[in-house]
Amino acid sequence: MIDILAISGSLRAASTNSALVAALAANAPADCRVTVYGGLGRLPIFNPDDEGERTPREAASLIEAVTRADGVIVSCPEYAHGVPGGMKNALDWLVSRDAAVGKPAMLVHASPRSLYARAALAEIMRTMSFALYEDAALEIALLGKKPPEVEAILAEPANRQAMREAVSAFAGVVRDP
Hints:
Layout: E1 2-8, H1 16-26, E2 32-37, H2 57-68, E3 71-75, H3 85-94, E4 104-109, H4 115-127, E5 131-139, H5 147-155, H6 157-175
Parallel strand pairs: 1-2, 1-3, 3-4, 4-5
């Protein structure tokens, strides 16, 4: 069983990115377990003085979840042409740890317009030594949709198949790097 941690970079209750990672978890192939990380909004602001024995409980939970996972999937919105602060903060908590080093990671997208955030997030994650898988990008356009529309789009057979195939391809890379 491949264990994948899925992280949404959005804190919005009706986030399309959160809906996408939840749908990935619900549509994961039988040989994969996708767990959605839900602690982004509870992370304290990163401070290097709070590392080591002083690491806050919520940050330690994130570090442990990334460490335990066989791979990480991130779906992140774009705010002002960049990565939202909450997502960047989460990554900052991982910077001086080994959790990210060589960890397979994949970006998925809920908006065709988030090109700046995609590039910035990929650069940040590569710099942190995540093994970024970029061969099979998954994009399901959910931008501007209301929750019932998002649910319907994610339930479409073609989109469910695309999610299964993307997670399966990523799991293949996790198994055989």
